[in-house]
## 1
Amino acid sequence: MNDFLALATAAPVATFIFIITIITSLVAFWSDDVYAGFILHPYSVSRNSRVYTLITSGLIHNDWMHLFFNMLSYYYFAFALEAGFGDVPGIGHWQFAMLYIFSLILSDLPTVYKHKNDDWYHSLGASGAVSAVIFSAILYIPLQPMGFIGLPIRIPAVIFGALYLVYCNYASKRGRDNINHDAHFFGALSGMLITIFLHPHIVSSFFSQIIQGVQSLTR
């Protein structure tokens, strides 16, 4: 509890999003009205109806497992991204809010266009915004070891990110649920572009770390 309070103090925006997403997702599990009211319907959005669902769809999830993995990934990256990675400064409070909200919207726009004539199609989940958080963090710490849950292998964050996008592309082509797998890719792209817009210096820092890492391997 003390650790979480410390995180909440250092990253209030990330904390608020974390708590509200869990609460609304749990409510939607038991309320069909909330679920139906929050879910993204590209057919409607493309016709200027239910536009708010570009945001509310990121506050609900398909099931417990979907919620768990999204919030676990968010927990590992979001608080540090807002507050800082040890000696590496974070993105900042209002910047984190901008990153998350804009990425949530931008990651869904390609889906709205893709399914604008599909009345049957719906999607939900915070995956786009969470991907934005992950890839924004990767720009700050590209060589930080990361691993997949349940596997002992740990690889540099930048390689983890590349594999993550490959998986998202695969899942998008095979997906038969309401989870918006396309949002992973476009969320990741949005997260990186917004981060670079807010902090242009991160580009030189990213490549400097990569070059130093490669040089350390060749010595």
Note: The first strand starts at residue 84 and ends at 85.
## 2
Amino acid sequence: MKLMHVGDLHLGKSLGDFDLTEDQEYLLDQLLGLVEKQSVDAVLIAGDVYDKAVPSEAATRMLDYFLSNLAKRNVYVYMVSGNHDSDERLNYGSDLFETNHIFISTKYDGNLYKQTLKVGKDEADIYLLPFVKASQVRHFLPDAKIESYDDAVRAILDKADIDESKNNVLVAHQFVMGKSEDPELSGSESLGTQSVGTVEKIGYDCFDKFDYVALGHIHSPQQVGRKEVR
């Protein structure tokens, strides 16, 4: 089983008045080429799919092109929303997309979304955790003590029925840190004492039940805490 982990596509992003559409179309084609060359079975998209909550026509066209080409190749897609995305807009058509093995989770509804991926004799449970804030999770888990982003994510995972005897993969969009270090940032991010882009830190150890964690939000590829948290 081969999984491709991408995140923070920020489709529709521009640099001042400079339109990046052609550059982003080129990069999507590069990803599709890698999917074919490496015989990828599934693509994990870890949030901030669009650059703005109200995406441009060009941005929606690019996502349609990318997902359609993955579907034509019979590649499964597992996608979550990020803090830049509109839950409703990114979720539009998700029920229909599932017939083409495109699974989208954009809003936590009290249950951690799960799909089981089977490739030959290999099997993995893929969990989708869209970007969440503490206030959103309190609504569904009123009995849990939730005061921070970290509390919220831990409450969600504690409630989920995760079978640790299986191969478990999580796709999430949160600001995750290691034991005592902040992740390395790219030039497009600003770091506060406890947050990046108003998103608070959470500890990587809350993901101990997962064999691989496909994260978004931080733009520089790296491992966080352990090599399976990327």
Note: Confidence is low (pLDDT under 50) at residues 189-198.
## 3
Amino acid sequence: MLSRQRSIAVSRKDKFFYCVIHIIMTLLVLLVLYPLLYILSASFSSPDAVVTGRVFLWPVEPSLRGYEAVFSYKPVFIGYRNTIFYTVAGTAINVTLTMMAAYPLARRDLVGRNIIMRLFTFTMIFSGGMIPTYLLMRSLGLLNTVWSQLIPGAISVYNMIIARTFISDIPGELLEAARIDGCPDIRYFCSVVLPLSKAVISVLALYYAVTHWNSYFRAFLYLSDQNLFPLQLFLRQILVKNSIDTELLMDPELEEAIQGMRDLLKYSLIVVSTVPILCVYPFVQKYFIKGVMIGSVKG
């Protein structure tokens, strides 16, 4: 009888605990979700509704004028082109270098493996700093080139550790069997390790792609030619500097109206620049979860 009463008490405590957790999580979801819904609703509202603050949750006086202005602004297409290039090319370079570094460090027979690993780890804590890095980029002649967006940060030590941990779990018997058959290391890496590492490669590609898509500060430091600007820098010009060059509008009728719809243009551009990468998340969520589990233990 006493044990039954205790179980009932514990059950009630659990129910109360779960109820509190659900309330807290619901509030957190609303705090995160509302700004996104507000931006989306504002982007589809009329300029007057946005300026007068009549938009709260749903679009007011639905209109597509914001998106018409965005797609009439020539730099948006330049930014999209550059961002897609930086994302695709940068991700390919990142994944290639990361796997090439992770494989030998996962081999226990690598001479000086621990020393090399410590050197990699050292760079996670200490770096040259922004000014020395800028001077180095200038000395190498990489300023105002696409390479300034691809070479710095070409490998993430954290992601390399994730890949090394994954490769370390591949059975060593496969390497022994490959050596018996006379398979060299490079062929073993390409024919055995890479096919077995599709999961971690997918995770790395997603991590790097999201980073490149959202990259802003590196382009802000090293680029001054607008033809090389990623989309995020054009977004900064409108959001932070609150300026837009009306001479670059392809629709002359929007030039006069653009002054009264700056806020609407901000919201529309945020949606346009965010939607492509958000559309990827539902399809790759399981890989992100797997990536977190892979990196949870770093041997």
Note: Residues 74-243 form a domain with the MetI-like fold fold (CATH 1.10.3720.10).
